[in-house]
TrEMBL record:
SUPFAM superfamilies per record: S-adenosyl-L-methionine-dependent methyltransferases (SSF53335)
Catalytic residues (UniProt): 69
Organism listed in the record: Streptomyces capillispiralis
Keyword Magnesium on entry: no
GO molecular function, one term: DNA (cytosine-5-)-methyltransferase activity
Gene3D superfamilies: DNA Methylase, subunit A, domain 2, Vaccinia Virus protein VP39
Keywords: Methyltransferase, Restriction system, S-adenosyl-L-methionine, Transferase
Name of the featured protein: DNA (cytosine-5-)-methyltransferase
Membrane-spanning ranges: none
EC number: 2.1.1.37
Claim: Transferase is one of the keywords in the record: yes
Domain of life: Bacteria
Family: Belongs to the class I-like SAM-binding methyltransferase superfamily. C5-methyltransferase family.
Gene Ontology biological process terms in this record: DNA restriction-modification system; methylation
Length: 423
């Protein structure tokens, strides 16, 4: 079997399914387990730190581990960095067959820090029978020194090992998500996958096959051309008048707006124009009756209607804000009640500003949109309320990235086109 520790909602499992194999996931979170069940993934609901290794000895060909990142992530308090010497001590002891976790845990500032040492407990037990054949592990960049410690141990056990930082955008994920990776194999040379994408398109040459440009959010979500789209909204409603497309307090999604026609991706220079008489028009311009039957309806100029939509990755002051024609920044969801939102800015407005429409309020990203930006299918069966779904998505490994990592370890062919970014 392939054993997936801290399996989450199925990022690694989805990648394995595309490659034609399955794993058994160990996961504690109730809603992540329900998502995995709805996605027909094999799961043992258990605490990885408490579950015995015995049932897997003699039966495990591959081990995957993505320990919880909250203790190390920039989105949290990062107490894992304070606890790092204790985690290194736990890894050293577990590799030698000594279980000192209980003592070390009492000294940790964040009890989750020590979970990064758990894969070594399984690896040491499996190594007694020459297993597993390969290993793949993933964490936030600050965990790289710990992966280097794992690498030294695994090399001593006969593995070829590579570890380093990879950017998911270089592998077709519409998100510049940087993570520390460890790849190890007993039967093949471990090395990082060859990037398929880059920030600037690279043509094929004598020195390589070339790389496509990073996948943009607009392309992944199916919201328009891969070139710079100019999402626009029509102030005052549609051509027939009516309320503002994004009224105060609206929780409508950008997808809803796109489907209603109030969000329209267009090439540069093409924007919506309006001659409608929705809310606020009568006060500024009068009704058609008191202007005279032959008087033309007032219009906003095209420039007044141009909005530039971007994705803000979280609520913090230093949040990454990226326009739709770029990949997203790393999606953060978690204990700070972070919200990932679409925000609009006018590209330009009327010279005097008096008739410029109000900027639409930020719109919360949907679970479907966030899942697509992680390269999950549009119909992936996320379970739980919005907060529980977002937490799962933010913690998941992007399946397309995972497939690039796993295919060489499994000696399986992989076609990135097997991942459909948008339905």
């Amino acid at each position: 079997m392939i054993l997936d520790l801290f399996a989450g909602p199925g990022g690694w499992s989805r990648a394995l399914a595309v490659l034609g194999v399955r794993d058994v996931g160990l996961e504690w979170d109730e809603w992540a387990c329900k998502t995995r069940a709805a996605a027909s993934q094999l799961t043992i609901r258990a605490d990885v730190a408490m579950y015995p290794t015995g049932p897997f000895i003699g039966r495990t060909s591959g081990l995957i581990a993505s320990p919880p990142c909250q203790a190390w992530s920039m989105a949290g308090k990062r107490l894992g960095l304070v606890d790092q010497p204790l985690v290194h001590a736990a890894v050293e002891d577990l590799a030698a067959g000594r279980d000192t976790r209980e003592r070390l845990l009492t000294a940790c500032r964040d009890e989750r820090s020590l979970l990064a040492a758990e894969p070594m407990r399984y690896l040491q037990a499996l190594n007694t029978v020459g297993e597993p054949e390969w290993v793949a592990m993933e964490e936030v960049p600050d965990v790289l020194p710990l992966w280097k410690q794992y690498a030294a141990v695994l090399r001593g056990w006969g593995f070829s090992v590579w570890c380093g930082i990879l950017n998911a955008a270089d592998f077709g994920v519409p998100q510049t998500r940087r993570r520390a990776m460890l790849l190890a194999s007993r039967v093949r040379t471990a090395q990082p996958p060859t990037p398929t994408h880059s920030q600037v398109e690279e043509p094929e040459s004598l020195f390589g096959p070339g790389r496509a440009r990073w996948v943009s959010m607009a392309e992944a979500l199916g919201w328009g051309a891969t070139d710079r789209p100019v999402p626009t909204v029509c102030a005052g409603g549609g051509p027939g008048g009516g309320p503002e497309p994004f009224p105060s307090g609206s929780r409508k999604t950008l997808s809803d707006a796109r489907e209603r026609g109030t969000w329209v991706p267009q090439p540069d220079g093409v924007v919506l124009q309006s001659c409608c008489e929705g809310a606020g028009w009568a006060a500024r311009h009068g009704t058609r009756e008191n202007r005279g039957a032959t008087a033309p309806a007032p219009t906003f100029t095209a420039e007044a209607h141009r909005w530039s939509w971007s994705l803000r990755s979280n609520n913090q002051a230093n949040a990454t804000v990226r326009p739709l024609y770029e990949p997203a920044g790393t999606l953060f969801f978690g204990h700070r009640a972070n919200e990932c939102t679409w925000v609009a800015e006018p590209v330009s407005a009327l010279a005097n500003g008096t008739d410029a429409p109000a900027v639409p309020e930020p719109i919360r990203i949907t679970a479907r949109e966030a899942g697509l930006l992680q390269t999950f299918p549009a119909d992936y069966p996320w379970q739980g309320n919005k907060g529980q779904q977002f937490s799962q998505i933010g913690n998941a490994v992007p399946p397309q990235m995972a497939a690039h990592l796993l295919a060489p370890l499994l000696d399986k062919p992989f076609n990135p086109d097997d991942f459909t970014l948008a339905a």
